[in-house]
Amino acid sequence: MSDLAYREFNPLKPLHHIDRLRVLAAGGDIAPVTIEIDPVAYCNHLCAWCVDPVHHHTTMSERFFGALVDDLKTAEVSGFKVQGVVLKGGGEPTLHPAFGRLLEAAAARFAVGVVTNGSRLQRWAQALASHATYVRVSIDGPTPDSHRLVHGSRDFNAVLAGVRALRASRHGRYPTLGLSFAIDVRTIDLAERAIELGDELGVDYVLLRPPFFEEVGRAPTMSPSQAREVRQLLAQAASNYQGEMLVQVGNWIGDSEHRLGDRTLVSTGRRDTQVINQLPVEHRTGRCLASPILAVVAADGMVFGCCNLRALPQWSFGRLDYGAGICFSSVWNGAQRREVLARMHRTACIGHCTHPLSRYNDIVETIKFGVGYHTEFV
Predict the structure, then answer these.
(1) What is the pLDDT tens value at each position of the chain, 378 positions in all?
(2) Is the peptide bond before 313 cis (omega within 30 degrees of 0)?
(3) Which residues contact 211 (CB under 8 A, 6 or more apart)?
(4) 3-state class of 191 per DSSP?
(5) Which is nearest to 207 in space by CA: 148, 251, 173?
(6) Would you report the helix, strand and coil content of the chain in percent, each value rounded to 5?
(7) Residue 299 near residue 90 (C-beta atoms within 8 A)
(8) Which residues 6+ apart lie within 8 Å of 194 measured at CB?
(9) Does residue 39 contact residue 99 with C-beta atoms inside 8 Å?
(10) Cα–Cα 20 to 30 A to 115, which of 176, 190, 198, 264?
(11) What distance in Å separates the CA atoms of residue 247 and residue 100, rounded to the nearest whole number?
């Protein structure tokens, strides 16, 4: 078993941010730990489950990006600052004509992650090897046909060549390099092939997960019961693997899957049924208080408070405009964010949720109420 499970993917990682979570539990505010930035809003692939289907020809200018990372470097809330930046999101980030310079500028100020479809990895392999902390390639299909089915492209071999180039270029164990596979009922038979491909390419990890549909209201390609079956088959494929590479099964579960059967999703006094059915903490409490741990800046300068809400204008905190003096702190402390955040706190957005912050919310809720059941015992 790779020690990535105890480093980069340690489930106790939220404890590094316990001071921020204490502030949130007390009703205060913080600066995000991580900011996701979308350098462009367009893509060269046509993925069926894209987190942002509303693509448009918007490119974040290099000047704006420079001002943004300078701004984020100095932004401070309750004594907390931004620590990391992820280039991903509303389009394929490596399509930005100055991607290498953006990457270098961000890495001079923050730890930087990159999420990419891999189509241009060969061009940017050296830059990524020099400046990225991690690179996750959303490849989804482990064969040319399955890749074309999901991505609508014919560049499978170019993606593999790019992964090999990046692996050959990196220094030591950084950037951490992984492959992500969103797998549904049409491609579930290829789960073991996905793991084999990761092994053959020598990546650090493979992530297997069912696709998300909730985030921006896409029509699902499978029922909640099928999603559950897919998840079980993915877990079986992962357990069958005996190699050294880390194989993960995504634990983000869409809200529609949680509604499977006759489960009660509202508070009913004693919540034994909800706990037994493993409903997310956001359902059990009707709150999401941990969302300020993360923020998203889209290519057009719009700021969102959750990765599940990007591209949904009604959930925007506002738009950055450095020419008009509207910086990140202006938006973060503004009236529009307060109104939207109040809706997020009471989970009015739960229909779009894949519960990415459940672990953080669990900690916030524990701190908030301080119920001392069995705290006398280790």
Answers:
(1) 468 877 888 888 999 999 999 999 999 999 999 999 999 999 999 987 887 767 888 999 999 999 999 999 999 999 999 999 999 978 999 999 999 999 999 999 999 999 999 999 999 999 999 999 999 999 999 999 999 999 999 999 999 999 999 999 998 889 999 999 999 999 999 999 999 999 999 999 999 998 887 666 677 778 888 888 999 999 999 999 999 999 999 877 766 666 644 444 444 444 444 444 567 889 888 999 999 999 999 999 999 999 889 889 999 999 999 999 999 999 999 999 999 999 999 999 988 888 889 999 999 999 988 766 777 888
(2) no
(3) 48, 49, 182, 183, 184, 221
(4) helix
(5) 251
(6) 45, 15, 40
(7) yes
(8) 142, 179, 181, 183, 206, 208, 237
(9) yes
(10) 190
(11) 30
Question: Looking at the domain that runs over 3-369, which CATH code has it been given?
Answer: 3.20.20.70
Distance (Å, rounded) from C-alpha 130 to C-alpha 113?
12
Q: How far apart are CA 251 and CA 299, in angstroms?
A: 28
Is the CB of residue 105 less than 8 Å from the CB of residue 66?
A: yes
Classify 362 as helix, strand or coil.
helix
Question: What are the helix (H) ranges across the chain?
Answer: 18-25, 62-74, 99-107, 121-131, 144-151, 156-169, 191-201, 224-240, 255-258, 272-276, 281-285, 328-332, 335-345, 358-369
Residue 27 exposed, middle or buried by CB count within 10 Å (0-12, 13-18, 19+): exposed
- Per the CB < 8 A criterion, the answer to whether 316 and 365 are in contact is no
Taken in order 362, 363, 368, 374, the sign of the CA dihedral is positive
Amino acid type, 173: R
- CB within 8 A of 183, min separation 6: which ones? 140, 190, 191, 194, 208, 209, 210, 211, 230, 234
Q: Which two tokens stand for residue 316?
A: 């925007």
Q: Give me the phi and psi of 113, to 5 degrees please.
A: -110, 155
CA-to-CA distance for 285 and 269, rounded, in angstroms? 11
Task: Please report where in the chains the tokens 């896409």 appear, as a residue.
Answer: 218
